[in-house]
Structure formats: structure tokens, C-alpha cells
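Work Package 4 report. The design task specified in the project plan requires that, given a folded chain encoded as C-alpha cells, an amino acid be chosen for each position. We show below one input record used in the internal validation round.
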């Protein structure tokens, strides 16, 4: 007989997500991904000045605001007919690149590492590192206290197997602490050209308002060199250690095995990460006309299966059979996984950049794995770490391409009527904004964000979303400690605040 368990909330993610699992003989036979709130940004934007959009949509999220700002100004660039100058394009890449680095380091160290690393190993630390000694003292003090939840977010935790090697645990804990400094450096990199963090003030249609100077170039480059050292000597090595300790997670959580990316980081002719799809192992061209959002099981009374240009956002909290505030985006009627794994795997199969293929093959060789093994829970962590290094390397190239003698902005006029599409990639995956302008005001605005793709409920044809498919079929050895399901869900880096926008 099957039984149902509910993980509510899924912790160490952004926003409110719960997962319902039906389990029979320790195997998940059904799963539902539930977004538990509504926010209404698309409704708020109606009737506003179009220039408010890039600032308001950044408030959708405090983790990936630059991505929303970028999608919005790309949509407005199109609507206003602007060709952005080279400095503006490069600075946008540098700001977004810093956000990628910041987001990827958060995801591994401060959200997911605790699923694998034994944090209690710090109580046995016998070295002389002052930061670790302070952490050890604090943990010991917390454990002696009578708090219900001591040393959160380290404990309480699921009782299960963690990394057994003491040296690996201690190194990872040390890097967990140092990752805070790495995140700080990434934010400073962004702020040099974005004005402030997390919500960038300088992102506007036509480019950016920040002026390029030699001093800013040197400051960004100095921070980047330091953070590259952390990525290459800590982040990549820790992911390799965790992956070696948990090889079974290369065969868990495969998901829908369809991958979509819009492409990101524009260079002279093309995006550095190319657009495209990989559907059941076959590369396919991308056509944004094939994007729709189904709402059969979503808490909206809007019409279903609409393209975003016709998209509606009409909340219906009591809708019969609906179980999530997320819509169900589909491409040509099928679910798509988006995110670092999609970007890496599409770029790899396209072969558009030899450096990406070389790094992917190098990591897989160290793990004795093949490309197909990337399509898994652990593969998402590996892809994210690989991408973090690639983006940092590219930022070092882009910063050298800035020219202090040239402008970073081109002036424009807002048309009385217009429409635009802004397709980019947040750290978590494909992000699209669609804007329609009438009488100089926003008539309609729709956002289709990465976690809406990944954590979507079933669609109009009752096909589960990518996270739901990744959970169905996995083993959960102890229903009271469903760590296997939590590890699968967190590998997608859900951001529900964005998904319900």
C-alpha cells in the first residue's frame, strides 16, 4: 500500500515550495511540486511607465535581480529599436557575470553542501585555523544550549549518510566559511558597474548609465582574480569530492531529459552560451513562438496554453483541482529543464566553444563519468561549478575589452505603441520578459522564469513538470528522512519567489 509524505517547506531554497510524494515499497510513484504563494508583479506593471519595468521586475528577486533587469531592458531595447554600444553590452555582461558567480557559490556552499557534508565534523577539529576554531566553539556552545533548533541551518537535519572522510569535511567547512567572502567579492564586482546591489540602478534601455574608467576596470579585475582562485581551488575541488563520495547521484533525478536555453552573454555576433534545445539527445533550433503556458493545474482562471504575448494573470485561489501558483511553461507542448546543465549540455553538443568541451571532458574524466551522466542530480552540481569557472574566465576577457574613451549608453525615445521580447538566462535558467506598450504605458507584461519551467505542475495533457519527473522513480529509504528527494529538488536551485512573480 502506498503512503503520502509532504515536505513542507523545502528549506534552503528561495521562496515557498512544498513537495508531495506518493511512495510505495520505498519508491516514489507520484510527485507534485507546489508553489505556495502569489505575488502579482505582472498585474502591478499594467499602466506603468515602461521605464519602471527594469526596476520593478528586479524586485521579483533578491538573488537574481540583474537577470530580471537584463530581460526587461532587452525587451525595451527591441521595443524602442535601440542598438546598444559595445561598452554597454560588455558592462551588462560583467554585471550579469558577477551575479552568476555569486548565485552559483551560494547554491553549492550555503544551500546544498549541507545535504552532503557532515557539519558535525567541526566538533572534532584539532587544527589551528582561527575561523574554524571559532566555529567549533560556537557549535559546541549551541549544542549545549536548550534551544529547540541549535546552530541553524546546520541542524536539525535528515539522519542519513554524509561524507565520511574527515579531511574532506573539514576542508569543505572551511570553504563554506570562505564562500561568504567570495560572495561579498562578487557583489562588489557587480556594484562597481551596477551602482548598488542587489537591485542594479544603472541598467536601462540603451546600455548602462555607469561611465567606464581605468580605476573601475582595475577594481573589478582585482576582485575577479581573487574569486577565480576560490572557484578553481575550492569550489571545483569540493564538488569533485562530493561527487566522488556520492556516485549514485549520477543516476538519480534525471528529469524530463529535454533541455532549453535562450543563450546569454552577447558578444560581437552571437551569444557566448548559444541558444538551442536538446530533446531526448537530439539538438534542435529554438523558436520563441513555440513557448506557451498551461494553467489547468495552476491557481489561475486565465485561458490556458497561451503564448506570453497573449498571456494573462488572473488569480483564482479556489480553482478546482489546481495545486500550484506556478503556471506550466511548455515548448512545442513538452516540458523543458532549464539552468546551468541546459546551457552546458547544449553548448557541449553544439561544439561552439572548444574551451567548454575541454573543461567538461576534463571534469568527467576525473570522475570516470560520461556525458550522459551529467543528466542527473549530481550532474547539475558539476555543470554549475563548470559554468562558474567558464563565466569567471570570460569576465576576465570582457573587462579587458572595455574602452574608457567610448560611451556605454545610447539615447532613445519611447514610442506611443510598441512591443518587445527580452530573452536571457538567469543563473537558474531561461528567463523571458514580454512587454506591450500602448499610449506610452505598459498594456501587458509577462514573465516566464526558470523555476516556472523546472518546478511547474502538470500541464493540460497531465504531463508532470521536470522536477516532478525527476522525483518519480527515486528510492526514499526512510519516509521520515526523505533526504533523497530534498537532494534532487535542491539540485535544480528552485527560486519560487521568481516563479510565482
Amino acid at each position: 500500500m502506498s503512503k503520502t509524505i509532504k515536505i513542507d517547506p523545502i528549506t534552503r531554497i528561495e521562496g515557498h515550495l512544498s513537495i508531495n510524494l506518493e511512495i510505495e515499497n520505498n519508491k516514489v510513484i507520484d510527485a507534485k511540486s507546489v508553489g505556495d504563494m502569489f505575488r502579482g508583479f505582472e498585474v502591478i506593471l499594467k499602466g506603468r511607465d515602461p521605464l519602471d519595468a527594469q526596476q520593478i521586475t528586479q524586485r521579483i528577486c533578491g538573488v537574481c535581480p540583474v537577470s530580471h533587469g537584463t530581460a526587461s531592458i532587452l525587451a525595451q531595447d527591441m521595443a524602442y529599436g535601440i542598438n546598444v554600444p559595445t561598452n554597454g553590452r560588455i558592462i551588462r555582461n560583467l554585471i550579469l557575470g558577477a551575479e552568476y558567480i555569486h548565485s552559483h557559490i551560494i547554491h553549492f556552499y550555503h544551500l546544498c553542501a549541507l545535504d552532503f557534508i557532515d557539519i558535525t565534523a567541526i566538533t572534532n577539529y584539532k587544527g589551528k585555523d582561527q575561523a574554524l576554531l571559532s566555529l567549533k566553539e560556537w557549535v559546541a556552545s549551541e549544542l549545549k544550549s536548550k534551544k529547540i533548533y541549535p546552530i541553524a541551518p546546520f541542524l536539525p537535519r535528515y539522519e542519513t549518510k554524509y561524507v565520511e572522510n574527515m579531511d574532506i569535511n573539514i576542508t569543505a567547512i572551511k570553504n563554506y566559511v570562505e564562500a561568504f567572502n567570495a560572495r561579498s567579492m562578487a557583489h562588489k564586482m557587480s556594484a562597481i558597474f551596477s551602482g548598488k546591489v542587489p537591485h542594479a540602478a544603472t541598467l536601462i534601455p540603451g546600455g548602462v548609465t555607469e561611465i567606464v574608467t581605468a580605476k573601475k576596470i582595475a577594481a573589478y579585475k582585482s576582485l575577479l582574480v581573487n574569486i577565480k582562485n576560490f572557484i578553481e581551488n575550492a569550489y571545483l575541488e569540493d564538488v569533485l569530492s562530493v561527487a566522488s563520495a556520492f556516485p549514485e547521484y549520477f543516476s538519480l533525478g534525471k528529469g524530463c531529459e529535454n533541455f532549453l536555453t535562450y543563450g546569454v552573454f552577447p558578444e560581437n555576433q552571437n551569444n557566448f552560451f548559444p541558444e538551442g534545445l536538446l530533446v531526448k539527445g537530439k539538438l534542435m533550433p529554438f523558436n520563441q513562438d513555440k513557448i506557451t503556458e498551461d494553467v489547468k493545474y495552476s491557481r489561475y482562471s486565465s485561458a490556458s496554453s497561451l503564448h506570453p504575448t497573449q498571456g494573462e494573470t488572473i488569480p483564482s485561489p479556489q480553482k478546482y483541482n489546481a495545486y500550484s501558483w506556478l503556471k506550466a511553461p511548455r515548448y512545442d507542448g513538452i516540458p523543458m529543464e532549464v539552468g546551468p546543465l541546459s546551457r552546458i549540455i547544449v553548448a557541449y553538443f553544439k561544439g561552439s566553444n572548444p574551451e567548454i568541451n575541454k573543461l567538461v571532458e576534463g571534469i568527467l574524466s576525473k570522475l570516470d563519468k560520461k556525458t550522459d551522466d551529467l543528466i542527473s542530480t549530481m550532474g547539475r552540481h558539476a555543470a554549475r561549478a563548470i559554468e562558474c569557472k567558464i563565466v569567471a574566465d570570460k569576465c576576465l576577457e570582457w573587462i579587458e575589452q572595455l574602452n574608457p574613451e567610448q560611451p556605454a549608453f545610447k539615447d532613445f525615445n519611447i514610442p506611443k505603441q510598441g512591443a518587445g521580447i527580452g530573452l536571457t538566462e538567469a543563473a537558474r535558467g531561461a528567463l523571458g520578459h514580454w512587454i506591450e506598450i500602448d499610449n506610452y504605458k505598459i498594456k501587458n507584461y509577462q514573465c516566464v522564469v526558470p523555476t516556472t519551467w523546472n518546478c511547474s505542475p502538470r500541464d493540460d495533457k497531465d504531463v508532470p513538470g521536470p522536477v516532478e519527473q525527476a522525483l518519480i522513480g527515486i528510492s526514499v529509504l526512510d519516509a521520515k528522512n526523505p533526504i533523497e528527494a530534498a537532494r534532487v529538488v535542491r539540485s535544480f536551485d528552485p527560486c519560487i519567489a521568481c516563479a510565482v512573480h
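The longest strand covers residues 417-426. Validation will be extended to a larger panel in the next phase.
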